[in-house]
């Protein structure tokens, strides 16, 4: 039995329902592969865990791959979400109603180079990098609520809820990269390029299993929630259910509807590369870094364009 470790972007939760189902049900075992999902380790995040040999795969974005120490050693295989989940809330009572109002203020961002989208937003708005102080912090919510930062990097399915529970709606302004046409995908399955080259049957088994897991999550949310609650017992089922629905809202759109679930749309990688060129002055060639052959070979029933569950409007 070959073990494949998948390092997640965060702690185990509904955000990774399909992966957790692939692990719990061992959907790749029939191909001789055991899937092990590992939660976030801040000391060695997502693609770094592949490059250091701590994991064979990771849930990571095209931007994570492009900005890594060795992009050529990684391959982007597939993606589930088709839109960035990131938002940046601020208070109108702090004199902030437009992105330019963040000039001269502090904004909380996650550690480890997670701020490419935000920097791209600033660039597209004519704001210099140096005009906004980006402060790395694992918890971007508490400092924002305490007034230590003017805004913070958050997801619509997790941190934003804590802010909405504490701040009156008419005082809250939420900046979203989508409105500036500079949204950068945060989701994807990235693998060790050597594994793709030397053991393609192992990679295929994992891709098939993850797509099957997400198919189950879409068609049978209660089974998905069982897996999520088992993996993360400290998080209530209602919170997991809310998160799962919002993950599906981000997933059952875009290339999922035009090409199929999990399709690794090169447009997402090209958008991340364009952001890098704008804010860092360079970016790797994206073409060789996407390996779509495993998605193309996966069973068609797992990469359909039509699904019984529709995203909320």
Short description:
This protein is of the alpha/beta class and 313 residues long. The chain contains 13 helices and 11 strands.
- Per DSSP E runs of 2 or more residues, the count of β-strands stands at 11
Mind describing the biggest β-sheet? Answer: 5 strands, mixed
> At the fourth CATH level, what is the homologous superfamily of the largest domain?
Periplasmic binding protein-like II
**CATH class of the largest domain, please?**
Alpha Beta
Order of strands in the sheet with most strands: 2-1-3-11-4
Describe the structure.
The chain is built from 13 helices and eleven strands. The termini are far apart. The strands form three sheets. A five-stranded mixed beta sheet has the order 2-1-3-11-4. Strands 9-5-10 form a three-stranded antiparallel beta sheet, covered by helices on one side. Strands 7-6-8 form a three-stranded parallel beta sheet. Helix 4 (116-124) links the parallel strand 6 and strand 7. The protein folds into two domains: 2-82 and 185-302, D-Maltodextrin-Binding Protein, domain 2 (3-Layer(aba) Sandwich); 86-180, D-Maltodextrin-Binding Protein, domain 2 (3-Layer(aba) Sandwich). The protein has 313 residues and is α/β, with parallel strands linked by helices. The protein has helices at 17-24, 46-51, 62-66, 116-124, 141-145, 159-166, 193-198, 200-219, 221-231, 237-251, 255-258, 266-280, 293-297; strands at residues 2-7, 33-38, 57-59, 74-78, 86-91, 106-109, 133-136, 151-152, 154-155, 172-175, 189-192. Helix 1 (17-24) crosses helix 8 (200-219) and helix 8 packs across helix 9 (221-231).
């Amino acid at each position: 039995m070959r073990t494949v470790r998948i390092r997640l972007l965060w702690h185990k939760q509904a955000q990774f329902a399909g992966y957790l189902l692939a692990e719990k049900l061992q959907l790749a075992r029939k191909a001789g592969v055991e899937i092990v999902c590992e939660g976030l380790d801040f000391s060695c995040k997502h693609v770094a865990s592949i490059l250091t040999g701590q994991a064979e795969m990771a849930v990571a974005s095209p931007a994570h791959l492009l900005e890594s120490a060795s992009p050529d050693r990684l391959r982007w295989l597939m993606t589930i979400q088709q839109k960035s989940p990131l938002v940046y809330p601020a208070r109108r009572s702090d004199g902030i109603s437009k992105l330019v109002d963040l000039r001269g203020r502090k904004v909380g961002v996650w550690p480890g180079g997670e701020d490419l989208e935000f920097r791209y937003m600033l660039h597209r708005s004519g704001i210099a990098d140096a005009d906004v102080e980006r402060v790395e912090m694992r918890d971007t919510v508490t400092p924002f609520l305490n007034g230590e930062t003017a805004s913070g990097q958050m997801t619509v399915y997790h941190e934003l809820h804590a802010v909405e529970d504490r701040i009156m709606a008419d005082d809250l302004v939420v900046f979203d990269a989508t409105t500036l046409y500079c949204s950068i995908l945060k989701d994807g399955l990235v693998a060790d390029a050597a594994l793709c080259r030397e053991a393609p049957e192992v990679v295929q088994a994992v891709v098939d299993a993850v797509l099957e897991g997400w198919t189950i999550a879409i068609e049978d949310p209660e089974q998905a929630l069982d897996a999520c609650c088992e993996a993360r017992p400290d998080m209530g089922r209602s919170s997991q259910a809310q998160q799962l629905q919002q993950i599906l809202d981000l997933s059952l759109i875009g290339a999922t509807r035009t090409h199929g679930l999990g399709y690794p749309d090169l447009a997402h990688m090209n958008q991340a590369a364009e952001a890098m060129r704008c804010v860092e002055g360079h970016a790797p060639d994206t073409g060789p870094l996407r390996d779509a052959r495993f998605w193309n070979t996966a069973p068609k029933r797992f990469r359909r364009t039509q699904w019984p569950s529709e995203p909320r409007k």
